Amino acid sequence: MTLSSISSTLSRRPGIRLGLLLAAPLTWLVLVYVVALAALLVTAFWTIDSFTNELERTFTLDNIREITGEALYRTVTLRTLGVALLVTLIDCAIALPVGFYMAKIASRRSRHLLVIAFLMPLWASYLVKALAWRSLLSHGGLLDWAGGLVGLGSPGFGFTAIVLTQAYIWLPYVILPVYAAYERVPDSLLDAAGDLGARPALTFRTVVLPLVVPGLVAGSIFSFSLTMGDYITVNIVGGANQMLGNLVYINSGSNLPLAAAIALIPIVVIMIYLALVRRTGALENL
Amino acid sequence: MTISRSTRRLLAAVTGLVLVVLYAPLALVVVNSFNTSQALTWPPSGFTTQWWQRAAVNPGAHDAILTSLTVAACATVMALVLGTLLGLAMQRYSFFGKDTVNLLVVLPIALPGIVTGIALSNAFSSILGVRLGFFTLVVAHATFCIVTVFNNVQARLRRMGGNLEEASADLGAGMWTTFRLVTLPQLRSALLAGGLLAFALSFDEIIVTTFAAGPGVTTLPVWILTNLFRPGQAPIVNVVAVVMIVVSVAPIWLAQRLSSDPTDTTRAIH
Questions:
Q1: In chain B, how long is the greatest CA-to-CA distance?
Q2: Can you tell me where the transmembrane regions are (chain B) (predicted)?
Q3: What are B47's strand-pairing partners?
């Protein structure tokens, strides 16, 4: 078959064309990712021989029993969940007014600049941001100095530091979808509400907010899900605190099945979160 | 809705304050890299370029930069090929399971890095029996970089429409000719933007990297993490951190200029 006859066959057969386009990327994603996730799930039900440290490929519920039974996992899960929820709340509380200002008050020109200004730190390294907060929060650091001016000090390394640093890291991920949601609210709706006599606060609560919720939820999925799996920030600013990510990391070298089982906790929590927010239509906004 | 002047001012002030909070920590890293004091105290005790000079001749940092650049370049090339194919398929065809494929592309970046990391390292080492190293790291990075190229290509194709491609086919051009002479030139800046984002994403990544790289491969973030708590290394880590900020933000700034719609670029993370 010559090149041109291949080409003409292909142009008559869209199905084959589609198959050829999809073959490589789908094989990659399924082979590398879906299989890996499935394998992780299976590994969580395996165990290791306590003498030889070899992987034993027999089905057991021991790991699940351990992570649901032991107090350590319950404490760490609750702490991780608490950090993730606080981070999400803080970021949403900041994103709502800032997104509104960007989309509805700022001039067209400064709007574009603001989007870029919020976009750039999003891409600065996650590790560098955690590092920056380490020096910000350190004893005698900038926060201690600035706080000293008003009689406060740095919270130091610990739970508060984890929440602050994570809220900082994921803030642009929440602001940008919220801004995009405000942007889609037609100005005519605001004018109509105003013409009908609604005060700004009432208009915001009954007209604007319901339209912005999907964007808010879309952003919260990022802040929530990415905080649930963090372990680097905790190591850098968390003091002696541990989150689920730390437990996964520590066990991944010595007891892979247990690490896999612990990794299921954030997956399950995130799935529950996604199921809860599914009805808001936020998933189409991702 | 008429918003009172004081509300406007208040919102502007909040936005300004948030921007200050967003940039101050990054500026602090830059300032610290010129600070004579090794402790992270404020205010800085004096100006020096000695950390920059010492970082410039630090072989570990050099090797790490080189490794990071190589990994990011390889991952970007793979992501470009796979993301473009996927973008063409998703934008030009409708088929059963399209939503699932969409979710599949986003998943590696929407699930926490620790899940992706341990899943991949588990699959590589205990299922496939591949030794963790440079190759597994590139595969892992390419997997979560596909989404940036895919989003940019898809957005561009959507805006292009299919008219020019149909005209080309009507005039007798074969599929390959049409792709080479009509589709690809229009995609060029979208590919560049998507590629730059993929590069920045891979260059920065730390969590998946710690799982997929194995002990022999030290990327720049891994180098920072291992030197962070070593005595006397803190100032050089600061310098390397500044380099990382520049290397990862510059491509974004470029990508931003290349894509006419800024929200395209924000979508790349989603």
A1: 72
A2: 65-89, 101-120, 132-150, 190-214, 234-254
A3: B35
The three-class DSSP label of residue A57 is coil
Return the pLDDT at A281.
62
Q: Which residues of B touch A40 (CB under 8 A)?
A: 115, 118-119, 122-123
Side-chain-side CA neighbours of A138 within 13 Å: the count stands at: 17
Shortest CA distance from A246: residue in chain B: B114
Whether this model's pTM surpasses 0.90: no
Q: What CA–CA distance (Å, rounded) separates B158 from B172?
A: 24
The single-letter code of the amino acid at B4 is: S
> Is B22 in contact with A94 (Cβ distance < 8 A)?
no
List, for residues B48-59, the tens digit of each pLDDT value: 888 899 888 888
Dist. CA A8–CA B269, nearest whole Å: 38
B53-79 burial by CB neighbour count: b if 16+ within 10 A, else e?
Answer: eebeebeebeebbebbbebbebbbbbb
A209-228 and A256-277 helices cross at what angle (nearest 10)? 180
- Provide the angle, in degrees to the nearest 10, between the axes of the packed helices B113-122 and A244-254: 10
- Whether chain A has a CB inside 8 Å of the CB on B260: the answer is no
The architecture CATH gives domain A67-285: Orthogonal Bundle (1.10)
With 0-12 / 13-18 / 19 or more C-beta atoms within 10 angstroms meaning exposed / middle / buried, residue A69 is exposed
Contact A245, A79 (CB under 8 A): no
> Is any Cβ of chain B less than 8 angstroms from the Cβ of A173?
yes
Residue at A94: amino acid letter? I
Rounded Cα distance, B151 and B86, in Å: 10
**Scanning the structure block, which residue is given the tokens 């929590």?**
A269
Residue A18 burial (C-beta neighbours within 10 Å; 0-12, 13-18, 19+) = middle
Angstrom distance (rounded) from CA B261 to CA A193: 30
Which string of DSSP letters, residue by residue, matches B182-214? Answer: IIHHHHHHHHHHHHHHHHHHHHH--HHHHHHS-
pLDDT at A99: 95
Cα–Cα distance for residue pair A214/A97, rounded to 1 Å: 16
Residue with tokens 């997929």: B212
Q: Which domains does chain B have, with CATH numbers?
A: 57-267 (1.10.3720.10)
Q: What are phi and psi of B35, to 5 degrees?
A: -85, 135
Domain positions in chain A:
3-43, 67-285
Beta bridge partners of A47: A56
Whether residues A127 and B127 touch (CB distance < 8 A) is answered with no
Q: Which residue has the tokens 């939820």?
A: A217
Q: What is the mean pLDDT of residues B73-97?
A: 92
- Which H/E stretch holds residue B243? helix B234-258
Q: Please give the average per-residue pLDDT across B79-87, as a whole number.
A: 94
Structure tokens of A203?
A: 């208009």
Q: Note whether B73 and B199 are within 8 A (CB).
A: yes
Q: Which two tokens stand for residue A156?
A: 């130091």
**CA–CA dist B241, B252 (Å, integer):** 17
